[in-house]
Inverse folding.
């Protein structure tokens, strides 16, 4: 059993929501009673965690599996205790959202591969297609979650050796094109170095950690930022190259659509909290510019 009693507001759900890869992610569950169940693969082994908010600044955690002690030790990071919003002054239109969500934090899981693989799967396709691929691959190659979550259908992400050995036909059946499959395989082969990224960030800064991630062929600025937002707790990581983000930020902050260059100009005054601005846009519902074209069709890379 572990417990985090913070000296400031803490919202379990808002902080951890973006760790889930879709509503049917087998590594993440929310219950009607407010519990969050999450699986992970720590350096010491697989783990299932049950997290429950017991007060506005208080979260209690239980853990099962070989990685239980490590997971409970890392619970403060997961809950964003490292996340320092000192000096953050949100844009005028987000001040109310910031005031209403004082417990929103940027989490730090410390687990790079389990953030990197689904980010790679989300490259160049709609999120729903990537979520289906993620769930299929976990059902095929994941591990049954330890503790009571296992019989409930939860799974633990594969280890690096398993990711590196997935056969071509399973990537095909999961709807993952050869390019993304190669990127996951390449990342898995240097997983030990990638898992050092949290320490690299602490020692040498965020730019060095992002550069370490981008050493993998096929991992660019967007993918590195998506990992940094989850595994590294980087409150300044902006997902440059996202299909929708620049338009949404431009519309929210300026009332007009923007490209990546313009988005970075608009967010520049809020560094080192640029991702915090994006999260506030998401939770406030303002990150939705009006649609003026057809929806992007879901690509099926299994065809042909």
């Amino acid at each position: 059993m572990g417990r985090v009693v913070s000296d400031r507001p803490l919202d379990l759900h808002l902080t951890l929501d973006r760790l889930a890869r879709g509503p049917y992610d087998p590594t993440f569950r929310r219950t009607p009673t407010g519990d969050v169940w999450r699986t992970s693969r720590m350096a010491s082994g697989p783990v299932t965690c049950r997290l429950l908010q017991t007060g506005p600044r208080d979260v209690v955690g239980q853990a099962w599996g070989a990685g239980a002690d490590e997971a409970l030790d890392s619970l403060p990071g997961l809950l964003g205790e490292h996340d320092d919003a000192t000096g953050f002054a949100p844009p005028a239109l987000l001040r109310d959202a910031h005031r209403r969500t004082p417990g929103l934090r940027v989490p730090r899981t410390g687990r790079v591969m389990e953030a990197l693989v689904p980010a790679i799967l989300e490259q160049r396709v709609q999120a729903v297609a990537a979520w289906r691929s993620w769930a299929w691959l976990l059902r095929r190659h994941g591990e049954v979650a330890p503790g009571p979550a296992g019989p409930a259908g939860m799974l633990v992400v594969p280890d690096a050796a398993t990711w590196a050995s997935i056969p071509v036909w399973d990537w095909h059946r999961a709807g993952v094109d050869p390019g993304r499959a190669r990127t996951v395989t390449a990342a898995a082969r240097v997983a030990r170095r990638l898992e050092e990224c949290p320490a690299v960030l602490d020692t040498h800064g965020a730019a060095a950690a992002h550069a370490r991630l981008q050493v993998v062929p096929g991992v660019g600025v967007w993918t590195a930022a998506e990992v940094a937002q989850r595994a590294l707790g980087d409150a300044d990581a902006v997902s440059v190259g996202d299909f929708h983000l620049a338009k949404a930020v431009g519309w929210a902050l300026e009332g007009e659509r923007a490209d990546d260059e313009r988005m970075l100009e608009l967010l520049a005054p809020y560094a080192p909290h640029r991702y915090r601005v994006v999260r506030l846009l998401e939770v406030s519902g303002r990150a939705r510019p009006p649609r003026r074209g057809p929806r992007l069709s879901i690509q099926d890379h299994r065809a042909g």
Notes: The longest strand covers residues 45-55. The radius of gyration is 19 Å. The chain has a mean pLDDT of 94. The first helix runs from residue 12 to 16.
